[in-house]
Design a protein that fits this description.
Glucose Permease (Domain IIA); nine-stranded antiparallel sheet; Membrane-bound Lytic Murein Transglycosylase D, Chain A; alpha+beta; single chain
Length: 370
């Protein structure tokens, strides 16, 4: 038998050391490729967007590159309606919650020195007529009747505060004051049954939005030619007998006091005059030339008063005076001192009550004063 050759003693058989490493590297590459293929297939099936983003035209890209740089306007971050809670908003309201009727209650005001019905009404944001109507028993539609320490009812809204009479009905009262039945019924403090409203005689009911005519407490218009005069027993000791002649007005007027602003009542339906501010004893001037037709004490809350007939259809009246410096029939020139500011009659503080009349009617002094 043929004997096989043996390697020389001390020499190891030959082997290629890189062949094992090549096999291992190939296995890793194969595993990596399989994994990459699996990830690609997973992406195609589950994660790929449903639609591709639209391609941007080259013209648009070019325009964007050529456009000048602009600063970006500041913007608020967008809220995610799911993860970010929306802010809570509240609508502002001038009305008190209906469960709290504090703003619907009748208030009571104590008259202080220097008060006027007009100023009190302005303080409570209602019309002066509303305050006058709400206090008929004490004022009898005369704003000059207020006095220091008097308590006045102040309604919470404009309207008529009415004392119910026997025979009154909701519909009849609403018609009389030109108001709405539903407003009377729905005013909570009236406490009326909407189905069967019943009101007892003597009960006070608020008529929201209602209004009525007022009785005017005034000295009648007196002219220089009124020979029969005005009754002193009715209108006061300052009434003149009339039948005078004298100075005639210029047709223009000046302010009857040094101050050219008001203190108290302005001109309104219950006060057909303006209350000019002034200190006790300050001079009162004739607003225009004319003849004195009333000089002295007057009833109706006017106190010491002067009326001048200007001989051209106009008359002016000056009330609550502390002094009267002219007499019946006196001719006065525009700007001459005729008296002094005071607080006589129904007045809570020194001021000048100034009226302008034309042919027997009342004129808002603001329309003729400079």
């Amino acid at each position: 038998m043929e004997k096989q050759a043996q390697p020389p003693t001390g020499v190891q058989p030959f082997s290629n050391p890189s062949s094992g490493r090549l096999i291992t590297l190939g296995a890793w590459l194969l595993a990596f490729g399989v994994a990459a293929l699996a990830m690609y297939l997973f992406w195609r099936v589950t994660l790929r967007p449903t639609s591709a983003a639209p391609a941007i035209p080259d013209s648009v890209k070019q325009a964007a590159r050529e456009a000048p740089a602009q600063s970006e306007p500041a913007s608020l971050p967008l809220l995610n309606p799911v993860s970010d809670p929306l802010p809570i908003t509240r609508r502002s309201s001038i009305h008190t919650n209906l469960t709290d009727h504090s703003d619907e209650d009748m208030r009571v005001y104590l008259v202080n020195k220097g008060d006027s019905l007009f100023a009190i009404a302005s303080q409570f944001k209602v019309k002066p007529e509303t305050v006058l109507w709400a206090n008929y028993d004490s004022l009898n539609d005369n704003p000059h009747q207020i006095s220091i320490g008097m308590q006045l009812n102040i309604p919470p809204l404009d309207g008529v505060y009415y004392k119910w009479q026997d025979g009154d009905t909701i519909g009849g009262v609403a018609a009389r004051f030109e108001a709405k039945v539903e407003d009377i019924l729905s005013w909570l403090p009236n406490n009326l049954d909407l189905v069967d409203p019943k009101v007892e005689a003597g009960q006070m009911i608020m008529i929201p939005g209602g209004h009525r005519e007022m009785r005017q407490w005034i000295i009648p218009t007196i002219t220089r030619g009124t020979r029969s005069g005005v009754s002193a027993s009715v209108y006061g000791g300052g009434a003149c007998t009339g039948g005078y002649d004298g100075a005639v007005g210029t047709g223009g007027f000046i302010w009857p006091a040094a101050n050219h602003f008001l203190s108290g009542n302005d001109y309104w339906s219950g006060h057909l005059a303006v209350d000019v501010a002034g200190l006790e004893g300050s001079p009162v001037y004739a607003a225009d030339s004319g003849v004195v037709v009333f000089a002295g004490w007057a009833t109706g809350g006017y106190g010491y008063m002067i009326m001048i007939d200007h001989g051209n259809g106009y008359q002016t009246l000056y009330a609550h005076l502390s002094a009267v410096n002219v007499g019946c029939g006196s001719s006065v020139s525009q700007g001459s001192t005729i008296g002094a500011i005071g607080s006589t009659g129904n007045s809570t503080g020194a001021h000048l009550h100034f009226e302008v009349r034309y042919n027997g009617g009342f004129v808002n002094p603001w329309q003729v004063l400079p």
